[in-house]
Amino acid sequence: xxxxxxxxxxxxxxxxxxxxxxxxxxxxxxxxxxxxxxxxxxxxxxxxxxxxxxxxxxxxxxxxxxxxxxxxxxxxxxxxxxxxxxxxxxxxxxxxxxxxxxxxxxxxxxxxxxxxxxxxxxxxxxxxxxxxxxxxxxxxxxxxxxxxxxxxxxxxxxxxxxxxxxxxxxxxxxxxxxxxxxxxxxxxxxxxxxxxxxxxxxxxxxxxxxxxxxxxxxxxxxxxxxxxxxxxxxxxxxxxxxxxxxxxxxxxxxxxxxxxxxxxxxxxxxxxxxxxxxxxxxxxxxxxxxxxxxxxxxxxxxxxxxxxxxxxxxxxxxxxxxxxxxx
Length: 327
Known about the structure:
- The protein is of the alpha+beta class.
- The chain has two domains: 101 residues, 3-layer Sandwich (Rieske Iron-sulfur Protein), CATH 2.102.10.10; 150 residues, START domain (Alpha-D-Glucose-1,6-Bisphosphate, Chain A, domain 4, 2-Layer Sandwich), CATH 3.30.530.20.
- The protein contains four helices and 19 strands.
- Strands 11-17-16-15-14-13-12 form a seven-stranded antiparallel beta sheet.
């Protein structure tokens, strides 16, 4: 049974789902950071998203199976209690934990707060204009730390993703920005080279921006959602510049890009799962985790560091308490 996430992970905005998963007048149930949540929107105001505990505070009925009304209230299917703005209409003293939610047009965000006095906005990534976009999700049997670690390991793509890449080189870094060169395999033994800027805006995000070569201007948003201490969901968005898309050719182009993208992430899911399972069994190595007080920061370069204990603590921090509701 998965353990609960630490309360120090609370106070964060997480991606709960893609916006198109939540239909007007319907509910959507997701587990985020050990919280069983229900999201809903009315048929009259489709951009306004509400989020709350999916557990009715009366007898624990599944609010995700309840009815959404045009006044924004949600009804428990077990006893018919109606909740609006966090209060039971029939019994106002019966309160439903609510959470801040936001629809950015592609993603549904929810905030699981710890400091309830601090109202923030989601850490939205800048999206380019005049692009074609698609998105998909991949479940991973790993904690969120090892998933992000995999994204920031620039040594494995050409060795591991052999059906997609023929070459990968780390070009260095500019502050917090990593510069990476990748060569995509093409028919007849050819390859197309691309260079990307890779950043990790938060502990739950990775961003790739192609700045040279194949696909210049393309942006990849990766949002890592901790489901619980042992499971993560990757929500990935590709933004392809319209100037790169042939006339009436988006469907075919998307098919090939998405096929490769999914293959990479599904292979990475196995990669992260194995590392996480080994870590739980006590295996310690030099890939981002400490060995004899030294840490290898993703790139195979050993450096003396006082961060060795912090690397272990990042894993231990995934065990603890759940977050309270915001209001």
